């Protein structure tokens, strides 16, 4: 079986040309938001979803010289409960993993104005107005370490977020960072009653394609305004492509996207999944960086099995892991206990939790994710 799989790899290695898992398109026709959504769904996949600053730069690059304000796929769904998110893309908020201070969150008066999180010295949380000016915590992420920074410049939450993204990586986000001993050392210089901005916020904004990406890039302190019906988001083509809200009835140019990955909710072993993808689409999906990981794990959330197959396989005779697309396995997201390399093993992403990669026997039956040409 090993040699037949290696042959499949060699047959498919020259076919993968575009490594991007989704493509953005700038549509210069002017439509209101609902018309733009209908156009994108009929001719492409949907109005554009923006998952991080890398996506923002792509949008700015493809629309150079275009209209000043352009629709994206974010709208204010006022009939839903506000949802808590972390500022850092890819870090998911878990209701069962919180550290609220006693009596928090309060959302005083249920006015919908306390939409940002604050952090105390003891690392407990409180909610409050995003307009409050406080010192804040940024972090820098490298391949090996994370460096935390206490910024002693009082800013509103969104201005603090913008500062962190411009000069570091983002506001600190998620329990992994909050439980880091290095952060606790930084907090030693903070007063007991001091409140700091960190990367927790909530809103009622949703993406047109139903994805749960938490990335927001507002120009103003939008989260503190009273919620208005019929509000949609557009990109302003200024220096950093910040967003603003407007009535969905205004006619603007817009962005669509074409999705190049698809979740197949059939239960197959790895080799059958491989043949299925090559017969019907292109190949089993390849994940070569963190941005691609985030895009693929969004699909994996909707699977009906605990794992989804990817195009990652272990060649027992060659003693190496390889992607069927001929990409080198540089980016890795293995679960910490995944040490065993054995014959008839392939890579599968968990559909819940942290979406880590696991080494599973080829004979197991899972859903799988295909890439399109």
UniProtKB/TrEMBL annotation:
Keywords: Disulfide bond, Signal
SUPFAM superfamilies for the chain: C-type lectin-like (SSF56436)
Pfam families the UniProt entry points to: Lectin_C (PF00059)
CDD domains noted in UniProt: CLECT
Signal sequence, renumbered to the chain: 1-19
Superkingdom of this protein's organism: Eukaryota
Domain C-type lectin residue range list: 24-139, 148-257, 252-371
PROSITE patterns in UniProt: C_TYPE_LECTIN_1, C_TYPE_LECTIN_2
SMART domains per the UniProt record, alphabetical: CLECT
Protein name: C-type lectin domain-containing protein
Natural source organism: Ameca splendens
Lineage: Eukaryota, Metazoa, Chordata, Craniata, Vertebrata
